[in-house]
Amino acid sequence: MSLHNRFGTDVLITGWGHSQFGKLNDETVESLIVSVAREALDSAGIEPRQVDEVYLGQFNSGMHPLGFASSLALQLSDDLAGVPATRVENACGSGSAAVHQGIRALLAGTARTVLVIGAEKMTHAGSDVVGAALLGADYESAGKESTTGFAGLFARVADAYADRYGPVGDTLAHIAAKNHRNGVHNPHAQLRKDLGFDFCATVSDRNPIVAGQLRRTDCSPISDGAAALVLTTAPTTSAHTRVRITGFGQANDFLPASKRDPIEFAGSVTAWQRALDMAGAGLDDLDFAEVHDCFTVAELVMYEVMGLTERGKRRQVLDDGTVLPGGRLPVNLSGGLKSKGHPVGTTGVSQHVLAAMQLSGTAGHMQLNSPRRGVVHNMGGLAIANYVSVLESL
Q: What is the pTM assigned to this prediction?
């Protein structure tokens, strides 16, 4: 079984664009959107007039005064006038939500070529504004004062994990060190420095506690950035037409914390299963994974959600090299959100672009040796809106 077998339609990724992530003072939301859209169309070898539909992933939530950005992609060309364009929002899963909407448009037959963009400007806003905006994705904390923001929520996850299974500080430091080491090879990454395990494991003036037991190195940075990709049902003249989506899954969990086990991430479990089932694939069929490590404890739980290790095993897949480059299933070769950065509405699109680069052999110094199949996991809120996509080289 695969997406093509189930629906009779191939969904191909034929082109993409990706900005630098970080503090981009000279860029606006508009300039970021236009630039990555142009790059994606050029790499796909198509003209703007060939685009049937546009989806924009953006969270915003008051971080930017323009709250109606869906038509900004039309600034690329007058030939896009009249093309349906929709802004998609599902917290930090907004980028993958836009990708999945694009896939559904192709499967429904209402479009043959879809342009998907993720864009976010965050660094211009004060930390209090960003913190309040992100807390809008939490049922209990929305609209309330907080000194720790979303870090405080994931700190509770780390505490709950430690209470159930034992200390996690060193494990989280190993994850942070791995992703910073991987991020050195990603030219788009915001933090391209190998910090090493000792620095990540030690609380210091340069690596203070942010919330609970989470240090600064356990938290993804505030970022600006954009990414775009072209989805089609038929090959183009592009050399990138060697990647297709073979399965996708979405699952939402309950908003109230009282209705969720804090370290189960049940919605992510369901989304993973749905995507793998559609793709007709198992864990052993995957060559790499890009997962949502907004905080290092999220990646730790994801090892268990994926089924790479039993619940509570903590460092096992780090110690045996499973998730490292060259391991059985490398995780976050891009550096993940931890190193690459996390412009929230962009993240899911960026993950798909980085996965497509791996599968097309264009990932540069991040490149694996001939990967066949990869997976993307993106989530909004504390594992509330969960998205998984399986990608395959042709």
A: 0.98
